[in-house]
Known about the structure:
Blueprint: E1 8-9, E2 16-19, E3 23-26, E4 36-38, H1 52-60, E5 63-68, E6 74-84, E7 87-93, E8 102-105, E9 112-115, E10 119-122, E11 132-134, H2 148-157, E12 159-165, E13 171-179, E14 183-186, H3 197-203
Antiparallel strand pairs: 1-2, 2-3, 3-4, 5-6, 6-7, 8-9, 9-10, 10-11, 12-13, 13-14
Amino acid sequence: MKHSGSLGPCPACGEDIVARSGFYGCSGFAQGCDFTLSLHALASIGHYQISAKQMRKLLKGPTQMGFRTSSGVERIFTVELKKIDGRWRAWVDFDAGSELEVLGECPLCGGDVVETPLSYGCSRWEEGCEFAIFKNSLKRFGGKMLSKQKARKLLADGETEVVIRRFDGGERSVPLLLDTTYGCRVLFNDREGRSDPKTEERQQ
């Protein structure tokens, strides 16, 4: 009988996995199944809590999750459930984390820009490059989260069009420019000027 709060089948016995207090466990524990996984199983390496939605995906197979490194950079790695030394664990494939879709070239160092949970950032972060276009860059102007398509165009052309909110509550379309310091910046009027961020960096 399927449990009403089932997140998916237990990888150990096939019974239902359900959320308990602080962990996910098997509904077949009374029959001897000892599968458990703490909500905070990955907290020590930068992923504070495994959500119910993420657990559903894990029970279906490998899934990607966001991790915050000690330097504060967000990265995405593949996670899957594996039985290691007799216990089921959330195993992180750190090598697969580098196999992400490349959105463009970093204007600072020439590395690949890839998507992370909070931004579109340089893949050479471990080498010290801090370039990132934050997805919520337009939030303070009443704009939407920056999409992957917008980020790709921004990296390719140095500019893209976005919609922000006017003071009267209406909307207006404005240019969003690539910026080596802040990732991107809104051009409110042409008097502010456009410049090539790559040229700017070479001149510094």
